[in-house]
From TrEMBL:
It comes from Viridibacillus arenosi FSL R5-213. InterPro entries: 2pore_dom_K_chnl (IPR003280), K_chnl_dom (IPR013099). This is Ion transport 2 domain-containing protein. GO terms for biological process: stabilization of membrane potential. GO terms for molecular function: outward rectifier potassium channel activity; potassium ion leak channel activity. The lineage of its organism: Bacteria, Bacillati, Bacillota, Bacilli, Bacillales. It is a multi-pass membrane protein. It comes from the Bacteria. Pfam families: Ion_trans_2.
Length: 121
């Protein structure tokens, strides 16, 4: 449990730092609108509930292998899903990559500061 709390704390610090970067802000905003458009589409065209649509939109962009048991049934839904996944997976990947880099940078900084202090003595 302590490990989970420490990891969550590190993730939140990285998120705060990431939101100070213009690249992350634009990626996060783009990802938000991709998820919003997917949710609206699946709610209107496929007739899914909002929760089902959000769940499908998020889980399908994360490489988790989770079976959602939700599949588009209309031809328009299938075509939309192909484009949605082609665009969304790339944006999700870049967003997670940027967040990961920020997380690694923030954990490297204390050791870098320590090395600087030791070398100055």
């Amino acid at each position: 449990m302590i490990s989970f709390i420490l990891t969550t704390k590190r993730l939140l610090k990285a998120l705060i730092r990431a939101f100070k970067q213009p690249l992350f802000i634009s990626l996060f905003t783009t990802l938000f609108f991709i998820l919003l458009s997917g949710t609206m589409f699946y709610t209107k065209v496929e007739g899914w509930s909002i929760l089902d649509a959000i769940y499908f939109c998020v889980v399908s962009l994360i490489p988790s292998g989770v079976d959602t048991s939700l599949t588009p049934t209309t031809n328009l839904g299938k075509v939309f899903t192909m484009f949605y996944l082609a665009v969304g997976v790339g944006v999700m990947f870049l967003t997670l990559l940027t967040l990961g880099k920020t997380m690694i940078k923030s954990t490297d900084e204390p050791t870098t500061d320590l090395k600087k202090r030791r070398s100055s003595k």
